[in-house]
């Protein structure tokens, strides 16, 4: 079962998305800020990270740059999740090291297609 780390500070978003991912066959780890996300990546080595970009402690831009600069974490795919939906926000996320980008509110079928593109099907 693929493991997805969801780094999201909004409790409602975190709970909703984690339940929906679990129903689709993913094991879900949760972090509530950027530093906790990096620490969990190092400890658990998830298959993929869903990364909110507006986080406390370390924002998603910084987390993505740190992960991609770390030889132990650089191969973990990152999908940026953000309410920022301007054209340059996608480019900024990709430049920070994210492998893909999706907007909030999350459209689950679209997000699952992006996850499967990076990991293959969960089941």
Automatic annotation (TrEMBL):
Matching InterPro entries: CheY-like_superfamily, Sig_transdc_resp-reg_receiver
Domain Response regulatory span(s) in chain numbering: 3-119
Protein name: Response regulator
Residues recorded as bearing 4-aspartylphosphate in the entry: 52
Species lineage: Bacteria, Pseudomonadati, Pseudomonadota, Gammaproteobacteria, Cellvibrionales
Domain of life: Bacteria
Gene3D superfamilies in UniProt: 3.40.50.2300
PANTHER family membership: HYBRID SIGNAL TRANSDUCTION HISTIDINE KINASE J (PTHR45339)
Claim: ATP-binding is one of the keywords in the record: no
Keyword tags: Phosphoprotein, Two-component regulatory system
Entry annotated with the keyword Ribonucleoprotein: no
């Amino acid at each position: 079962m693929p493991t997805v780390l969801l780094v999201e500070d909004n409790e409602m978003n975190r709970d909703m998305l984690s339940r929906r991912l679990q129903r689709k066959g993913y094991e879900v780890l949760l972090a509530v800020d950027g530093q906790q996300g990096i620490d969990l990546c190092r400890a658990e080595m998830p298959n993929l990270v869903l990364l909110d970009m507006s986080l406390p402690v370390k924002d998603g831009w910084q987390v993505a740059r740190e992960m991609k600069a770390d030889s132990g974490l650089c191969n973990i795919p990152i999908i940026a999740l953000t309410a920022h939906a301007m054209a340059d926000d996608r480019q900024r996320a990709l430049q920070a090291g994210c492998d893909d980008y999706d907007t909030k509110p999350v459209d689950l079928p679209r997000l699952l297609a992006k996850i499967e593109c990076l990991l293959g099907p969960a089941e």
